[in-house]
Write a structure and sequence with these properties.
By secondary structure, this protein is an alpha/beta fold. It is 53% helix and 17% strand.
Length: 873
């Protein structure tokens, strides 16, 4: 029959103290409901006992003085030999043998004696198991069980005609009534306590109880009848009883394994589901999180473990970070108010296996720890990831077994703890990945995706939000001069200054390079402008880098959500703030976005989206600027320069559309177009007997394309152009931005026989260190130095140094920006090899270039049967 001491396990358990909160009002309401239910059951039991006692005759005899105690002992033994099987919702079903003394009691004692024996045995068992909190309820249940049994037996007896002796059919029917009454009372208690139990589970449990009760009653009845008629047959009856007990033990083990597997599956699913919820949503207001999960979800997991172990209390102590305190979640009886000491022995257990402590067997330190928890026994298992302690699981005082926790409980808790430890470790890794996905690894501030995420709610809830975009214009200079490690230090210092100026609560992100963004909530445009001015002053103060002091200049643009009636998203605000930053280049260093600035982005967007169509329509063309050798002034080659005549915007300069094309990832298309047009032009010259090379500018993105050398080789083979008639020009910043990535591409191009030139040489600082490593053939002196040679002795010295350096390394030196005869003569005197500039010719379209060659050059035979073009003076 259902064990009466199982019912206390159905009491509502709430989170205790220690960090998880106090018992909710719902639990207190359930307790009040159960208290009313207890008095109802007890009152009904007393009334039923008086009624049945008055109805059934009492036949006293001297034998009752020893029959009563023997029955009490029999009931007590039947309770202690019970085989426990746990049922969901805290109910435990015990396969006991109380039906055997009960069915015998119908034949040997009156109602009052059997009732008293059962009450003494049942209440004594509860007190021995220290579950006195439900004594009144169980006393009422005991009264109704025995009262119902004798009432049914008496009715059946009367239906069979009455008589001096109890018919065995009436005794069997009455005995089956007792477990049925107990089961119905337990199911009603589950309902009163608002615990969940499926109807199918209740029906299945009731069926099992009736079957087992019928078997027990039949064995007891048969044994009594056999011994009554043949006393010498008692060994046979005992053997049958022992065999039945062995079968019950085996059956209980199977049920226990099934329930353990279900519980383990439930806990695993709860942990996995809570992990998915932690990854899917941030904390909302009022939620207390442990490991990214609401405490209530951990309480559900703890409650399930408690129910399966039939424990009075389960405590989860969880810690994800080494320096964080342990967070405590309690299911069951509340913990005492005092927190465990730092040297608590239950929290300093080595390994990751389960320990079973009993207060009667523990050493003084463990005994003191158990007393602090008001526990008589405990299962304790640490949760570890490698050597890191993630938490501790404790289970206190098993309720539904008289012997306390057993080996099955130890095994189950160990397996559950392993799943919890794995889940916590995975969630810690997930939290790290999520943090890395939304934070900049250098500064620790948000990155662009993180900034977009944290800005959604303020944009939706606040009346006015302002986005600041902060750019430092010294980043590239520091990178070139001192290297990226020093530039990174400057970025970190700038981020620290911004955080100090704006405060810890303002969302701050590093976008790229030395560009930052900040979100000002409930801020007017005037307030944002004043904040930006103060921030610019602080950011423009010198930065101590090693033993140097680097001067910096900050430019800040901002955009407000009210510019578009508050309907703009964070990407739109960032875009507008970026437009405002670009507008600061006109002189002001702090600018707010105005709608007229939006035309800039519209123009760039149209350029990017219409570029491919413009290529097909012939709006994009290639112009060529001749280069001549010094001092013989022969046309050595041309530089291919792209031009775009837009149908709406008119003539566009490369400085305007090439950065937009490059940012949109279309630079490969542009390079392929210029390369094709240039090789086609070189092929025409070869057909005319002219060996004139073409120089094509490369982008840093071309140098990150591993397939680029193969594409170039295919184009050379397609037009049958010797590779030495193709020159690729690269800027210093392009090569130096990622030398490790660019060098293999450059070496592969150089191995094809293509000429490589470093463009704008002299404007950077790092190229001198890398120049010997680069497989280049030419250096081009930046035109800013060439134009200043006539008036600035410093520029003259730089040009002379570059010429000498280039020649010492065996390189051809090309000077661009030659616009005056004096500059040409100075370059010729220095030994410069090639000149290019307006003095020779402006960039010309293909047809005008042919006319220029016809009018400005003289043709003469060269050394290798080719025709040489010499510039006319």
């Amino acid at each position: 029959m259902p064990d009466s001491n199982a019912h206390p396990g159905t009491e509502p358990e709430a989170m205790g103290s220690g960090g998880a909160g106090s018992a909710p009002a719902e639990g207190r309401t359930d307790e009040s409901r159960f208290r009313v239910y207890t008095f109802f059951v007890l009152g009904l039991g007393l009334l039923a006992a008086f009624a049945v006692g008055a109805w059934l005759p009492f036949h006293g005899s001297a034998k009752l003085w020893w029959i009563g105690p023997v029955l009490a002992v029999a009931f007590l033994l039947a309770e202690q030999l019970g085989i426990n099987v746990d049922v969901r919702s805290g109910i435990s079903w015990t396969i006991s043998f109380t039906e055997i003394p009960l069915v015998i009691g119908f034949f040997v004692a009156p109602f009052e004696v059997v009732l008293a024996a059962h009450l003494v045995a049942g209440i004594g068992t509860l007190l021995a198991r220290k579950v006195a909190g439900r004594v009144l309820y169980n006393a009422g249940a005991f009264l109704l069980e025995i009262t119902g049994a004798f009432a049914v037996a008496g009715l059946v007896h009367l239906a069979m005609g009455g008589g001096p002796t109890m018919p065995w059919v009436a005794a069997l029917a009455g005995t089956l009534t007792a477990p049925l009454v107990s089961t119905l009372l337990a199911l009603a208690a589950v309902r009163v306590l608002r615990r969940r139990m499926r109807v199918s589970t209740a029906i299945r449990l009731t069926g099992r109880i009736l079957v087992v009760g019928f078997v027990n009653a039949s064995v007891g009845l048969t044994g009594y009848l056999v011994i009554a008629s043949t006393p010498q047959a008692w060994p046979l009856v005992l053997a049958v009883f022992l065999g039945l007990t062995a079968l019950y033990w085996a059956y209980s083990d199977l049920l226990r394994e099934q329930r353990d597997m279900e519980a383990l599956s439930d806990v695993s699913l709860m942990v996995a589901r809570s992990g998915q919820q932690a990854a899917a949503r941030p904390a909302s207001r009022g939620e207390e999180l442990v490991g990214g999960v609401d405490v209530r979800e951990w309480a559900t997991i703890a409650e399930r473990i408690k129910d399966q172990l039939a424990a009075g209390r389960v405590v989860l102590r969880l810690r994800l970070e080494a320096d964080d305190p342990m967070r405590v979640v309690v299911a069951g009886n509340e913990l005492p108010a005092s927190d465990p000491a730092n040297d608590d022995p239950l929290l300093r257990l080595p390994g990751a296996h389960v320990r079973h402590f009993r207060i009667t067997e523990a050493n003084p330190d463990v005994r003191a720890a158990l007393l602090e928890r008001s526990a008589q026994e405990a299962l304790v298992v640490p949760l570890r990831s490698a050597n890191k302690l993630l938490g501790v699981v404790e289970a206190h005082d098993r309720l539904s077994r008289w012997r306390g926790f057993g080996k099955y409980d130890v095994q189950l808790l160990g397996t559950m703890a392993s799943h919890l430890a794995t889940s916590l470790d995975n969630r810690r890794l997930l939290a790290t990945l999520r943090h890395d996905a939304y934070h900049d690894p250098l500064t620790g501030h948000l990155n662009r995706p993180g900034f977009q995420q944290v800005s959604r709610d303020p944009l939706r809830e606040s009346a006015e939000v302002v986005v600041l975009r902060i750019d430092l214009d010294v980043f590239s200079t520091v990178s070139d001069a001192l290297g990226y490690s020093w530039a990174d230090r400057m970025v970190v210092a700038a981020g620290t200054r911004i955080r100090g100026a704006l405060g810890p609560d303002v969302p701050l992100a590093r976008l790229e390079g030395a560009s930052f963004a900040a979100l000002l909530v409930d801020c007017t445009v005037d307030d944002a402008h004043r904040a930006a001015e103060r921030l610019r002053v602080q950011l423009s103060e010198p930065y101590p880098v090693d033993r140097l002091s680097v001067e910096a200049n900050a430019m800040i643009g901002y955009a407000s959500s009210v510019d578009d009636n508050g309907e703009v998203d964070v990407d739109g605000l960032l875009q507008r703030a970026d437009v405002a930053v670009r507008a600061t280049r006109g002189g002001e260093e702090v600018r707010g976005y105005v709608p007229s600035m939006g035309q800039i982005f519209l123009r760039r967007f149209q350029m990017v989206t219409q570029f491919r169509q413009s290529l097909e329509d012939g709006h994009v063309s290639v112009h060529y600027q001749p280069k001549v050798t010094l001092p013989n002034r022969q046309v050595q080659g041309v530089e291919a320069l792209v031009r775009w005549v837009h149908p709406e915007f008119g003539r566009l300069g490369p400085d305007e559309f090439v950065p937009a094309i490059e940012a949109a990832g279309l630079i490969g298309v542009l390079t392929s177009f210029v390369l094709e047009q240039s090789l086609k032009r070189v092929r025409k010259w070869l057909d005319e007997g002219l060996r004139i090379s073409a120089a094509v500018n490369l982008s840093v993105r071309n140098l990150s394309d591993d397939d680029f050398p193969a594409k170039v080789q295919r184009e050379l083979e397609r037009f049958d152009v010797p590779p030495e008639l193709l020159t690729f020009e690269l800027t210093e910043s392009g090569v130096m931005s990622d030398p490790q990535k660019a060098l293999p591409i450059l070496r592969e191009l150089h191995s094809l026989g293509i000429v490589l030139a470093v463009d704008d040489f002299g404007t950077g600082y790092s190229s001198l260190a890398y120049l010997r490593q680069l497989p280049v053939d030419q250096v081009k002196i930046d035109k800013s130095f060439v134009l200043g040679m006539g008036t600035d002795l410093g520029d003259l010295a730089v040009v002379r140094s570059i010429v000498e350096l280039g020649h010492s390394l065996g390189l051809t030196v090309v000077a661009e920006g030659v616009e005056e005869d004096v500059a040409r003569d100075q370059l010729e005197a220095m030994g410069c090899d090639v000149a290019q500039g307006y003095l020779i010719s402006r960039p010309l379209p293909e047809d005008r270039l042919e006319a220029w060659l016809q009018a400005r050059t003289a043709r003469s035979p060269g050394r290798h049967s080719e025709t040489v073009l010499t510039l006319l003076t």
